Inverse folding.
């Protein structure tokens, strides 16, 4: 990339470079040997000094992710979000259009339960929950969403905050197929370019910090919540590439710490499995140089991933039943938001979870 995906300017700064890693959405069959070509895909984040958009620098992969199982945390948050938006009076009109995410999940049932009719174009409520980040041409994606809002309607857009990603050191939020990482500051600019104004927002604990905003094709000022988030971003310095570049050190420390812990477990004769064959774990496993000596297998509830392996490694993906039967000493949980769900579902593993932060 030599121009910003959002504004088209060329004021880009490299803030995170993970080198060459496997495609984060391609899980080979367990019988397929690991090849050098498999681990040859550059993965880096750039930041635009003009609009503030953090973005995937380039992507030479082809999307090929087996369909995962939507976590209960996502379902619970969706239900809570729709209820909050409804109470606040932002569920306008009678029609809804959803721009979906390739990770699955939908908010439509909660809207249709409230009398809305799902349509394929021009709706009163336009939904986008973690969908727009998968669009390589961000400018065009914002234009399309704005075009689909009927007069008097609203865009409801939820995103994983780049401030959360930096503050919590969530460097492996960067992955192939995820083309943009938003601050509210950047979204105010980018939405403004397509005639939308951010009116209000809601914050959630999902993924450590996500934001749902309401944007309208009207000349309105953001409310106190919008002002507070913008102020916190300004104080944090989230528009400064040097601040976002702190992710590089966090990435290096994370990989070293995980590798050291796994080596110690192996030396002590303890068996470690992982849970969650998530795309966010691909770069982590690859950069840490993990293999089945250190992580015997990764359990996952998605049937489409069984019989496959973690990209760039020989670590097989197995069912939760196989995990329980193996009775490992520790289980590395690759997605922290799953902790409540898996703790409840697999009480026999109590005390053995190591949450990857």
């Amino acid at each position: 990339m030599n121009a910003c995906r959002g504004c088209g300017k060329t004021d880009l700064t490299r803030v995170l470079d993970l080198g060459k890693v496997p495609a984060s959405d391609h899980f080979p069959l367990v019988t397929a040997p690991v090849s050098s070509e498999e681990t040859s895909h550059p993965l880096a984040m750039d930041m635009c000094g003009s609009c503030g958009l953090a973005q995937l620098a380039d992507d030479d992969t082809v999307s090929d992710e087996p369909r995962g199982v939507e976590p209960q945390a996502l379902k619970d948050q969706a239900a809570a979000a729709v209820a909050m938006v409804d109470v606040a009076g932002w569920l306008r009109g009678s029609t809804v259009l959803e721009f979906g995410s390739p990770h699955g999940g939908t908010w439509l049932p909660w809207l249709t339960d409230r009398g809305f009719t799902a349509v394929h174009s021009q709706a009163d409520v336009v939904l986008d929950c973690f969908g727009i980040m998968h669009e390589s041409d961000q400018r065009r994606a914002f234009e399309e969403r704005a075009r689909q809002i009927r007069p008097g309607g609203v865009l409801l857009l939820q995103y994983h905050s780049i401030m959360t990603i930096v503050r919590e050191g969530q460097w492996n939020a960067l992955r192939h197929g995820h083309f943009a990482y938003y601050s509210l500051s950047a979204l105010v600019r980018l939405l403004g370019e397509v005639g939308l104004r951010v009116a209000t927002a809601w914050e959630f604990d999902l993924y450590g910090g996500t934001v749902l905003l309401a944007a309208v094709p009207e000349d309105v000022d953001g409310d106190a919540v919008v002002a507070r988030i913008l102020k916190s971003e300004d104080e944090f310095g989230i528009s400064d590439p040097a601040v976002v570049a702190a992710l590089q050190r966090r990435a290096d420390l994370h990989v070293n710490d995980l590798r050291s812990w796994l080596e110690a477990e192996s030396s002590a004769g303890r068996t470690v499995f992982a849970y969650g064959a998530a795309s966010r774990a691909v770069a982590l496993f690859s950069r840490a140089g993990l293999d089945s000596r250190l992580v015997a297998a990764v359990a996952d509830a998605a049937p489409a991933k069984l019989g496959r392996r973690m990209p760039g490694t020989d670590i097989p993906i197995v069912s939760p039943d196989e995990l329980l039967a193996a009775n490992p000493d520790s289980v590395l949980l690759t997605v922290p938001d799953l902790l409540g769900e898996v703790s409840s579902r697999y009480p026999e593993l109590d005390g053995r979870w190591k949450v990857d932060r």
In short: Residues 72-244 form a domain with the Rossmann fold fold (CATH 3.40.50.150).
